[in-house]
Amino acid sequence: MRKMFILSAALFLFSFTSSNPPLTDKEKKDAADLLFKTEQGVFKSLEGMSVAQLNFKAAPDKWSIAECVKHIAASETELWQMTDAALKKPANPEKRSEIKASDDQLVQMIESRAQKVKTSPPLEPQNTPYKSTADALSSFFENREKLIEYVKTTNDDMRDHVLTLPFGSFDSYQMVMFIAAHSNRHTQQIEEVKADPNFPKN
After folding, report:
1. Which ranges of 88-171 would DSSP assign to H, the alpha helix?
2. Alpha carbon of 2 to those of 6, 8, 14, 154: distances in Å?
3. Confidence grade of residue 12 (pLDDT, cut at 50, 70, 90)
4. Domain limits at 168?
């Protein structure tokens, strides 16, 4: 009888201290698919690019394709470091009420080029650690592949670890979607550079 009481008490306490369930299979697939799709988008946009094309600027204050790639790679690292740090802290489900965007709304917001946003100085191309486009692409590919594998296999409680950014609050799963959408945002920027009438033919 005493053992049964102890077991019942333990189960009762556990019901209040356990974290939320891990991501669903659909959530994992949705994130992995978007990460893969947007990764491929970056590489496809760069196929056959010459040095002249990579370094072309439509205007002095515009980024070249090479600079877009450096920003994508640096942001990939920075955004995941922020997310990973949040996941290592205690869960803060009380912050969920501050999240105003659904997963789909977040992706649409980040991917949209309708509103231009100035990046922080550390993520400006000239301030990144990459010496070349190849260096940046190598970093991007390595980090993206790790992130895809992570999101496919994680049992972390990503929904109850909420980050507060200057422009909104998002849970850690949404931050993964943010990372994917962000690379697509700048893939679109690369395509805008390529569409400039003065873009080198080769």
Report:
1. 103-111, 133-153
2. 6, 10, 18, 37
3. very low
4. 24-194
